Amino acid sequence: MGGVRRAALLTAGLSLAGSGLGLVRDLTIAVVFGAGPEVDAFLVAQGLMNLVLGLIAGALAKAAIPVMARAVDAGRPDAGMASVRAALGLACLVLAVGGGAVWVGAGGVVALLAPGFDAPTAALAVELTRVVLVATVLVTATNLLAGAGQALGRFGPAALQSVGFNTVMIAAAALAGPVFGATALAWGFVLGSLVRLLLQLVPLRAARLPAWPTLRLHDEGLREMLRLVPALVVGSALASVNTLVDRAVASTLGPGSVAAVSFAARLSSTIDLLLVATLLAALYPRLAAAVTPARRAELRGLVARGVEVLAVVLVPIGIGMALVATPLVRLVYGYGAFDDDAVALTASAAAVFAVGIPVLAVREVAARTCYALGDGTVPVASAVAGVVVNVGLDLLLAPVHGVAGIAAATVSASVVAAAVTLAGLHRRHRAVPPLGRPALGLAAAGAAGAAVGWLVRVGLGTPDGPAGAAPVCAAVGTGVLAGYLPVLRLACPEQFRLVGAVPAELRRR
Question: FRET label pair with 435: which of 116, 214, 218, 228, CA 20 to 30 Å apart?
């Protein structure tokens, strides 16, 4: 696990700059556009493109990493790369056909995905959808080649891709946004996606591995990927459906609601990028190499450490973000056109999204373990359960609680999906280690941290402006840790040592 931790820390460090720029990107969009109809239209257009990518890019990338990792483990990276290139060629062909169909039918699809949009906003969403569809092939190639680089042990380029992308998006929003409106965001997305792709070529060139797509449909590695792809396609599509349903329901709640849900979710997704995604990038190839029955104990150990490391770190972060949702949103977004109403709307969703951060991490570790084992049935079953819960609660809670109800539906769906994934992984593969005792200890430590943090938050009151929000966030975060760490040390000493090992590891790196 030490190699995984070092790789994850390296990836997290390199991702830090990209995450910081991601927040600057969101801040720039918020300042220039506020939480209004132009951002709503861009987010729906982007969500439609992500649905197309969810059907192809995400599925193929997840299926390719185990094939490439095993080839590298066997000393044959060229054979693994040949399979990746065959997958890229097939993906480009499918995306050309699917993207063309979406281009033609964009008007009807936007009407379905955002029924609450007025005519001008819907027309803008159609225009932006056709622009961002250009990026589908670029993003697909990026995902596949980044996975190949990670299987080679080169995590830096994949972690750095967000730096180039966010730099382009910031420039597009700040410089071109006031002149060209949301169209600048769509073309910035395309150009930023090209920059991301170019970065993934670096480790492959260093390893003297070609990256051009081919159509070698007889490739054995490609056939292995395709056996897993149907389940991955369904799982990815269902995950995208949740986002699309959230935005469709939000479009009926008034102008800016889609943007508020998205801005709130991005605060949580920043934590996902820095911690969950970086650990999984390092862990996934190791899981894929340890799937044989003779290494099942090693696999369970990797799952245990992955879940424990993420849970120990994310529980206090989720609690702290929930307690300071309004000051945090004001600190990050509360400038320019992003007025007090936008802050309040976004914060109501952000507080709920924060609660689900640790649950998402557990689900992702369990799902990646299933994929490494070649089992797509369990993740699909969990995704179906999540969609049913999310759609039902969206329709039930949003009319009463607004965007906070949408966030609550998403978190509830994550809880159900995580439970289904863990249960299936244990029943089918016996790959889940005992987690009951650590979970109880973490719950006790989290309750103590929440109590202390809440007392601090109540004592400080409501800050004025972004400048006053920063000290409130810092004070509440300190209070949460003051309550959390002592109880964690008593209830979960082994997990507490995981936290203490991180600073030392960072100094060594």
Answer: 228
